[in-house]
Amino acid sequence: MRVPTIVLMAAALALPVTPLAAQSSPSWPQRPVKIILPIGPGSGADIGARLIGDKLNAKWAQPVVIENRPGGDGFVAINAFVGARDNHVLLFGPAASFTAHPYLHDKLPYDPRDLAPVARVSATLITLTAPPRLEVKSLGDLLAMARAQPGKLNWASVTGATDLVIAAFLKTQGLDMAKLPYRDPVQALNDVAEGRLHLYWSSHAIVRASIEAGRVKPLAITSSQPSSVAPDLPTVTQAGFPGLTFDGLVGFYGARDMAADLRERISADIQGTLADPAIVSRLHATGQEVVPGSAAAFAADIDKQRVIIAGIARILGIQAAQ
Q1: Phi, psi of 234 (to 5 degrees)
Q2: Which fold has domain 30-124+247-316?
Q3: Tens digits of per-residue pLDDT, 247-295?
Q4: Strand order of the sheet with strand 33-37?
Q5: What is the DSSP letter of 31?
Q6: Greater confidence, 39 or 115?
């Protein structure tokens, strides 16, 4: 017996509506996937995104487009990502670009919950360097010089989060070093080489060639663990200054309402690309340790970093933006 159309319509209307976030997306991707970065071309994260994107392009049988949107302390990229509200748009970059925002700005133009972790990719190696002409052999030597000559030495870093770490460390140590602001990391590197900048906190990728050429002197890495990327360099803890410890976290974010099963599928696909030794080797060359992780693992690491930065903000007397 055929059921009248009106009965079918009534039955359909009576069914519970399943929210978009809970729906499965078995046919994803249905069109090109865009990966937005808050930093420019040529950076370690940019190289990583393109290597991973090439692999995903083949796996997903859809173009994977890398879009660099630097500027505005990451807000340009974040606003483009959040505004898209599209599960075919991902955000990729260092967590430190976002976790310090509440302590660097009076008001945020986005809700941090809109950046939902999808997959951890790597840990950016961060290196402290000094000018060879400063004639210091270690981080301890440089800080002893700063203590003996208050206000004579200076420092610079590349992100807001690391600015907070150094400022809090100097405050707790009672050290007087001036901060020099830089927009261009290459200019900062040149000033280290010329002796105008005395302590530079940056990604290892930025300083690696200059270290190898003897233009700048490496002092330590900020990682909590020794790194195979720079096995000869001590961690700041090994150097005697654990207050400077900071792990760079790099990974992918998806939209807040992305279906859970789709998030896990994308995460697994991304982690699968990192099993390729060629990609691991290329990422090592950009100063990144490859540490694949699930959405949950990435989220846990980000939460730890937020706790650390919140503690640093308390030392500096900074209130979080509401």
Answers
A1: -75, 155
A2: D-Maltodextrin-Binding Protein; domain 2 (3.40.190)
A3: 989 999 999 999 999 999 999 999 999 999 999 999 998 889 999 999 9
A4: 64-68, 33-37, 89-94, 250-254, 116-124, 288-293
A5: S
A6: 115
- Mind listing the pLDDT tens digit for each residue in 122-145? 999 999 999 999 989 999 999 999
Domain extents in the chain: 30-124+247-316, 126-244
Please name the residues in contact with 6: beta carbons below 8 A apart, sequence gap of 6 or more: none
189, 203 in Cβ contact below 8 A? no
Rounded-to-integer distance, Cα 277 and Cα 7, Å? 59
Out of 15-19, 133-137, 216-220, 280-284, the most confident range is 216-220
Find the farthest-apart pair of alpha carbons in the chain and give their distance in angstroms, rounded: 95
155: which 2 tokens?
Answer: 């420092």
At residue 52, what is the residue type?
Answer: I
What's the whole-model pTM score? 0.84
Write the CATH number of the domain with boundaries 126-244: 3.40.190.10
Find where tokens 């070093």 sit.
Answer: 177
**Token code pair at residue 90:** 């991902």
Closest CA to 258 of 87, 57, 38: 87
